[in-house]
Every structure is written in C-alpha cells, then in structure tokens.
Design a protein that fits this description.
The protein has 241 residues and is of the alpha+beta class. The protein is built from 8 helices and 7 strands; from the N terminus they run ααβαββαββααββαα. It has helices spanning 2-20, 38-51, 65-68, 107-113, 158-164, 166-173, 216-221, 224-229; strands spanning 54-60, 81-87, 99-103, 118-123, 146-155, 189-202, 211-214. Strand 6 (189-202) and strand 7 form a beta hairpin. The termini are far apart.
Length: 241
C-alpha cells in the first residue's frame, strides 16, 4: 500500500509541476539571477524608443455625453479603452519623453483633451536582413521585448519646438507628416510630448528576461551613450547573455 501511495504522490507532483511551468513564460523565475537587470532592461527599452517611430497610443473614452454629441459615436462608450497606431519620434531635449504631432480631429487626442491618461505601447522589430539562429524562440513575438509607457499628453510651446529643432527632427522620421504640421489648412494640430509616469516592461520569456515595472528614475536615468551602445537581438554586435 505504501509503495502505491508513494508512486501516486510522485505522479501528482509531476502533473502539478507541469501545470505550473507555462506560467513562468510571462513571469520571472524567482531563483534566476542570470537575466538582465532592471537598469539593463531600461536601457533596452530606451533603445527601442529610439529605433522605432510608430506605436499604439491608447486612451479612454470620456463619460461626458456632450463630447459624444460632437461626433458620430456609439452610446455608452464612457470608460472604454481604445488603442490606435500613431507617429512619434525621440526629439525632445528630455529624450525619455516621446514627441508627438497631435491632431485635433483624432480620437486619441480628443480623449486626451477630455482628461484621459495615455499609454504608448511599443515592441521591438528585429532587422529584416538578419535571419534568426537555431533557437526557434529567438524571433518569437512572445520572446521579443515590448513595453508600455503610461502618462499624459502635454502641449509643447512653439518657442521650445523651434529652439530645439523638434519639428525638423520629427519630419526626418516622418516626412509625410509635414502635411499636417501646425498651421496647415487641413486639420488643427499641435506639438506635444508624452510625459512618462510609469513604465511596464516584458523583455521576453521569464527564464531569460526581466518582466515587471521599471522605476521612473531608472527610465530617466539612462544616458544617450548607453542607448547608442546597447544592442538588441538581430542587431550587429549583439551578444547573447
């Protein structure tokens, strides 16, 4: 009887372990030390912010029915989130705050004007000319870095934009956007920055990357030299940990 009971307990333990294992895909193993630190993860995130220029801007519809009456919009959207692709560029004197060319008619900026907080979500795209290695998970979207910047939209005075050449910087990344620069004849627009208040990071699978919140001091404390020297999977000179 005792050997049978011992065998049954072993089987149940194996089943329980197998059931728990997939949960570690999106969380860190508590005993692992050989993964990027929080600061190293902040550096990677800041590099992605520099490399990319398109992201998903998420806002929440306001409850104000008067605002809803100003456009064709389904009823009872108040409190519902919506995420839309938008342009951004790293052109701010404080490089940890993305520069945005806001358009008054766009839903995201209507919601922001009504008081919605904003989340900008980014993901890393490996270079198309670099083929993945033998690791089948290397380029898996579930294993590639992605993160969200939580904050609010703040208008940038024209004098500040001109002083730091933020408009020229933005147009280098998005030449076609000159058509809706402030003062254009099509739509009301203005320069803005995303004031980042929180950063949530998923560096990849939990057995090889940090997953969790990055303190705002770490996000802001990354130097441009660190950003320029960092390399992500697929980039030249990238070194796997």
């Amino acid at each position: 009887m005792l050997p049978l009971l011992a065998s049954l307990l072993l089987v149940l333990s194996a089943v329980a372990a197998a059931a728990r294992a997939p949960q570690r895909i999106l969380s860190n193993y508590p005993h692992l030390n050989d993964i990027p630190t929080v600061h190293e993860s902040a550096v990677q995130a800041r590099r992605i912010l520099n490399l990319s220029s398109i992201a998903t801007l998420s806002t929440v519809f306001p409850d104000n029915q008067h605002l809803a009456s100003l456009e064709t919009r389904p009823a009872n959207l108040g409190g519902a989130p919506i995420g839309l692709i938008d342009y951004y560029a790293s052109c701010d004197p404080t490089p940890y705050e993305p520069t945005i060319l806001a358009i008054g008619i766009a839903t995201s900026f209507k919601n922001a004007r009504a008081g919605s907080n904003v989340t900008l979500s980014l993901r890393y795209h490996p270079p198309v000319d670099h083929l993945p290695g033998k690791d089948i998970y290397e380029y898996s979207p579930a294993n590639l870095p992605r993160f969200s910047l939580v904050g609010h939209i703040e208008p940038i005075p024209t004098s500040e934009v001109r002083k730091h050449g933020m408009d020229r910087c933005f147009f280098r990344r998005h030449p076609e956007s000159t058509a809706w620069r402030p003062g254009n004849a099509i739509h009301e627009s203005w320069w803005a920055r995303l004031v980042v208040e929180q950063v949530y990071w998923i560096g990849g699978f939990g057995d090889r990357a940090y997953i969790g919140w990055i303190p705002i001091t770490e996000w802001r404390g990354v130097t441009q030299e660190e950003v320029e020297n960092a390399r992500l999977v697929g980039e030249n000179e990238y070194k796997k940990r």
